[in-house]
Amino acid sequence: MPKTAPKLDSYTKYWAECYGISPFLPTSRAEMDTLGWDSCDIIIVSGDAYVDHPSFGMAVMGRLLESHGFRVGIISQPDWRSAEPFKVLGKPNLYFGVTAGNMDSLINRYTADLRIRRDDAYTPGGEGGKRPDRAVIVYSQRCKEAWKDVPVVIGGIEASLRRIAQYDYWSDEVRRSVLIDSTADILLYGNAERAIVDLSHRLATGEAVNQITDLLGTTVVIDSVPGGYTELDSSRVDWPGQLDAIPSPYEYIVEKSCSTDDKKGGKKADSNTKASAEKDADQEQIVRIVPLPLRRFEEDLVPEKTCIRLPSFEKVSKDSALYAHASRVLHQEANPHNARILVQKHGKKEIWVNTPPIPLTTEEMDYVFGFPYQRIAHPQYEGQKIPAYDMIKTSVNIMRGCFGGCTFCSITEHEGRVIQSRSEESVLKEIEDIKDKVPGFTGAISDLGGPTSNMYHLNCKDDDIQASCRKLSCVFPEICKNLKTDHSATTQLYRKARNLPGIHTVSIASGLRYDLAIRDPEYVKELVTHHVGGYLKIAPEHSAPETLSKMMKPGIDAYEEFERMFYKYSKQAGKKQYLIPYFIAAHPGCENEDMLNLAQWLKSHNFQIDQVQTFYPSPMSLATAMYHSGRNPLKRITYKSKKMFSAKSLEQRRLHKAFLRYHDPDNWDVLRDALKKMGREDLIGNADKSIVPPRHQPRGARGAARRATTVRPARGDKRQQQIPAARSLKSRVPFKGRSGAPSGKR
Predict the structure, then answer these.
(1) Which of 317, 371, 567, 729 meets the CB 3.0–4.6 Å disulfide criterion with 63?
(2) What is the DSSP pairing of strand 230-233 with strand 306-309?
(3) 268 assigned to some structural domain
């Protein structure tokens, strides 16, 4: 049966509700004085500029807590070089809430080739360098320096994806849970509305933060597994095979409990020992340990009192096969309705990962998006442009979550697989708010979407089936028969949105899941006829079946079917519109031959693409486990399994990008050399099937070829765009210190 949770708005409000609603959450003592506050109950520290908009996490959490009566202040992009900026609002009564912002601070700062980005879309003026690397760790430590007795709560995507030991691309090593390195008291992962509301109310009643270990969607540090739990080692859940040939990485020794009688000497324990034994009665129930894959124990397991022991940090940091195994188990325990608690030893401490939060209902989603957001940046920025805000100021988020499960993507790990949709009325009301509040609004809505554009109200047909499901994806290797694929709710929403007074354009910019879209031709026709402004971005990612299977993406035939529908309905509408495809270079499991086949596919479709995505190993994703271990966690891990290829070196990554941009003369030399090594010199020449021309061209031919290079998003498009030169991979930046800053100067 599906789990339930108290309604998000069902709590008794905190006494400070009497202060009412703030125009903006205060960022200075002067603003607090204007509101009549002597202190803040909660202070949120964020790596992003403060924009009071539902697309910015600090605004959502701040307004949510405000609706429960708490006084919430914001410290945005503080100077982390000392603790003083963290004292600007005084000492919070309950806790600091720390987040790196809407993006992981390292992904925000470094490209996939580990080059430093010059800009930051979440900073006024787009200025880079306004947040530290590993911002969650650094901010948390500064909060502790400022007020050592104040609890620190960490959350957001950076903390969420580092809740257990995780491979760190930037230092090329497995790092400890961020909860250990940050010295924070508790970590909230995923969409944390339920957890933060419950936590805040419990702290407000005087409960100590170190006693709050049972909240769904949280991770805490404990000394040992609580009494009364049955502990399964992860090998029993997903037996890796041949692990018994090496010393067991799951060994867990439980200390013997105190006895009232010393069996060796027959000496009776004193009264203090008796009292201690009685006090620890729960612990005497002791942790029941099931160390081997013996099925006879499964019948009497109580899910709520069962935890799964992952291999320790010390083990996974030294054994990449165990790391891949742990990653596989983590993803299998992602359904909030049937997941079990995970526990992982870090030295003498245990990382205790409670089960995921219960998804919000439609009514609760409407509640969260219905707060009185100003929908603009805080006045302190004096009109400076914040690029990320400019991108989303006229867009509307209609849903959360993604059941696609793409292995290279972090959305599923963070937001979950269960789609959480807003009501039609809530979405239309937000469009009305945009008309009233966004300066210079012209009547164009830039997007109705979210993690994807077309999963709105698409859920499992049966709640009980969904509650028991452990599939990593609802659409791979094929679309589940229990999944609703009727897009009528989305189609109806589009029609109502574009017919609102004062609205002349509603564009769709979020990623389209085309394998779902082709199941509903009416939706595709509606989209193509009314909501595409010339170009539609779409992400087939690759053409090779083996590579696509490791991405958990549909076959290229699904893309080609959508392409046919797209041009058919564009022609019927009398519009010239084009698809812009996105592909990934250097994905784990992708061989040189796969990239060659993709280049041939691109040429056969007359695609000459400009923007090239290189695989970025983000923390905790399945593809990152593939990259680090060379093993496929979509299958059971064994030491005897054939290891997959991953392009890691500068030369390999450059080659894979070159195949994607075969038309760029700067890539021809490296492609010629690669084709010769692959025995495919037949693809060097001027024939239609050739990938690159021969090495010796007539004088001026290379320059002419460069000038003729075009970006052709689809067949027949004559528009031209400059293609930038390929960029080389820099050496890795070491990240060893706890301060979060790289050694040396940037």
Answers:
(1) 371
(2) parallel
(3) no
Instruction: Give per-residue pLDDT as tens, 630-648.
Output: 999 999 988 887 899 999 9
Note the pLDDT tens digit of each residue in 527-563. 999 999 899 999 999 999 999 999 999 999 999 999 9
- Residue 363 counted as domain residue: no
Asked if the structure places residue 681 within a domain, the reply is: yes
In a shared domain, residues 72 and 189 = yes
Cα–Cα distance measured from residue 21 to residue 107, given in angstroms and rounded to the nearest whole number: 35
**Residue 356, domain member (yes or no):** no
Cα–Cα distance, 685 to 137 (Å, whole number): 54
Strands 505-506 and 444-445: parallel
Residues 6+ apart with CB under 8 A from 211: none
Single out the residue in 530, 560, 593 at which a domain terminates. 530
The CATH number of whichever domain residue 456 belongs to comes to 3.30.750.210
CA distance 396 to 80: 33
What are the distances in angstroms from CA 741 to CA 401, 519, 619?
A: 32, 49, 18
Same domain, yes or no: 27 and 70: yes
**Predicted confidence (pLDDT) per residue in 359-396, tens digit:** 999 999 999 999 999 999 999 999 899 999 999 999 99
- Cα–Cα distance between 619 and 625 in angstroms, integer? 9
CB burial of residue 133 (10 Å; 0-12, 13-18, 19+):
buried
* In the predicted structure, residue 699 carries a pLDDT above the cut 80: no
SS (H, E, C) 409-424: CCHHHHHCCCCEECCH
Query: What residue type is assigned to position 226 of the chain?
Result: P
Q: Which domain holds residue 339?
A: 224-255+282-347
Cα–Cα distance, 13 to 535 (Å, whole number):
48
In this structure, what DSSP letter does residue 201 have?
A: H
Per DSSP, the three-state class of 171 is coil
